[in-house]
Amino acid sequence: MKIAIWISKELMLPAQWKLLKEAGYNIIIYNKGIYNVEDFLDEIKDFNDKIYERVLLIPVVPESVKMRLLEEIKNRGLKFEIVEPIMKDLGRYDNEELCKALLSQNLDSRVLVRLKDGTCKVHEFTQFKHLVEYVKRYDEGWSL
Q1: pLDDT: is 20 or 46 the higher one?
Q2: Angle of CA points 23, 29, 33, to nearest 5°
Q3: pTM for the complete prediction?
């Protein structure tokens, strides 16, 4: 049995749901949020059981939480795989009607985000990718 755990207060897009179902995953929605990575992993540790062929965690959470999840999964020797939905940015617009028009062209894979400054953005789901590590890079040519 393969399981995908969607971790977000946001709804999964129909295209994401369909892709996971077609790949043979049972989908579990976890919409409580992650306030403490250690407590979250303790709560779902039973999914690390050997009866599950594969367990995907799909966290739509801040990057710092994903980094901590990766670190804790590795430290605990868990078999969970962190998977990210990859979203293509279709642009930022001042006109909400334009955003809505772009959204309506593909409701199954697009999402509209209203920003605090009054503009809006449209993103389109393209694929899931396995996240294996975060890499910290420095600009070696930078100086004070």
Answers
A1: 20
A2: 135
A3: 0.86
57-100 pLDDT, tens digit per residue, is 999 988 888 899 999 999 989 889 999 999 999 999 999 899 99
Q: How far is CA 10 from CA 32, 54, 71, 138, 141, in A?
A: 10, 23, 24, 33, 40
Helices marked H in the chain: 14-22, 37-44, 63-76, 96-104
**Strands, E assignment, the chain:** 2-7, 25-30, 54-59, 81-93, 110-114, 120-131
Sheet holding 81-93, edge to edge: 25-30, 2-7, 54-59, 81-93, 120-131, 110-114
For strand 81-93 and strand 54-59, is the pairing parallel, antiparallel, or unpaired? parallel
Per the CB < 8 A criterion, the answer to whether 109 and 86 are in contact is: no
Rounded Cα distance, 48 and 25, in Å: 15
Q: Is the dihedral of CA 12, 13, 14, 18 positive or negative?
A: negative
131 closest CA partner among 76, 78, 61, 57: 57
